[in-house]
Amino acid sequence: MTPPLSRRLGAEMLGTGMLVATVVGSGVMADRLTDDGALALLANTIPTGAILVVLITILSPVSGAHFNPAVSLALAAARRHAGRDVLPYMIAQVIGGILGTGLAHLMFDLPLVQVSGTVRTGWGQWSAEFVAGFGLLLTILGGVRFKSDAVPLLVGLYIAAAYWFTASTSFANPAVTIARSFTDSFSGIRPLDV
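and the corresponding structure tokens:
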């Protein structure tokens, strides 16, 4: 039985918020602990991959654990998600992501709202995001079709890998990208580049 829409939207908002709080919070922590860019990226990668496994495992039965407008659209196109729910899911994901940035800032005594100055643009970044997004959707759709119980692990591992093999560090998520424009930390992105 499908939970009511309000419950599913709450799960999407909570999941996206916790994901972004992890991305931004681990980025702030990494920035505070090291001046080594590679070590900081590793310190950002591991928690992100880990939290995806946890969040998808516990929230998938409620909402499908999309946490990403591109995933909601792709699943609707594949007829695995109701098309009428895509826009409400997207709104919940973006709001959750922005709240997650604020939560990370609160935990690290930073201003709740910042504007990122980190430039992330150009053909390398854009092509990397195409690859990151395509690979994520391929992972999810392939996992759902052939090994649905492995989707949480597959997504966590794919994102952890894509942090390193894409020039963009694999944002691969419009809601998370928007939310990351509200932090001027290691994981931020300039609003113009969103």
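(Above: one complete record from the training split.) The mean pLDDT is 96.
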